[in-house]
Amino acid sequence: MKRLPLSFYARPTLEVARDLLGTLLVVDGVRGRRVGRIVEVEAYLGEHDLACHSSKGRTPRTEVMFGPAGRSYVYLIYGMHHCFNVVTDAPGVAAAVLVRGVEPVEGILPGERTDGPGRLCRVMGLNLNHNDLKLDSEGLHLLRGTPVPDARVERGPRIGVEYAGAWAAEPFRLWDRDSGHVSRFVSRRPRRRP
């Protein structure tokens, strides 16, 4: 399979987010090769998107988001969970796509959960050492996989960004509805009223 070229990421963020579904995230590290098929993502559109880290401006932490596209943005939340993003769009836009869930393909043990950004980073071995790397490197890259058909792509609001006002309701979270490796799996069954 071919690695995604850096030009893949240099497009509008929502397009990249959609096209990431079905691609393969590859991490070669001290624990060997780990491969996961991306099944859930969230798009963050830049400084005007109040849920995006870059909405607070350029900082040492967000510098990588300002480009160029095709680099990793890894950060730590709650002092214990890493989150892996791919930088997208044109230089200066400061946009990224958070990878929220992967299906195990290679090197991931049975029972290791990869639903949710913190879990997938722990299992894949991603940490701050992977921040600001080109996404076509030997140790970290993405491969073309089997695209997820449009009929299986669900869209909804991003998780954990309620502070962002109206931006929190935007349907910028995308996932493969047939995957069991999606964080906060959304049931299509209506809730019963008590």
Label this structure with key terms:
194 residues; mainly beta; 3-methyladenine DNA Glycosylase, Chain A; eight-stranded antiparallel β-sheet; 8% helix; EC 3.2.2.-; DNA binding; hydrolase
Quick summary of this structure?
This protein has 194 residues and is mainly beta. 8% of the residues lie in helices and 29% in strands. The chain has one domain: Methylpurine-DNA glycosylase (MPG) (3-methyladenine DNA Glycosylase, Chain A, Roll).
Could you outline the blueprint of secondary structure elements for this entry?
Layout: H1 13-20, E1 24-29, E2 32-44, E3 72-77, E4 81-88, E5 95-106, H2 117-124, E6 140-143, E7 153-156, E8 173-176
Plain-language structure description:
The protein is mainly beta. It is built from 2 helices and 8 strands; from the N terminus they run αβββββαβββ. Strands 1, 2, 3, 4, 5, 6, 7 and 8 form an 8-stranded antiparallel β-sheet that branches. A hairpin with a 3-residue loop joins strand 3 (72-77) and strand 4 (81-88). The longest helix is centred in the first third of the chain and has 8 residues, at 13-20.
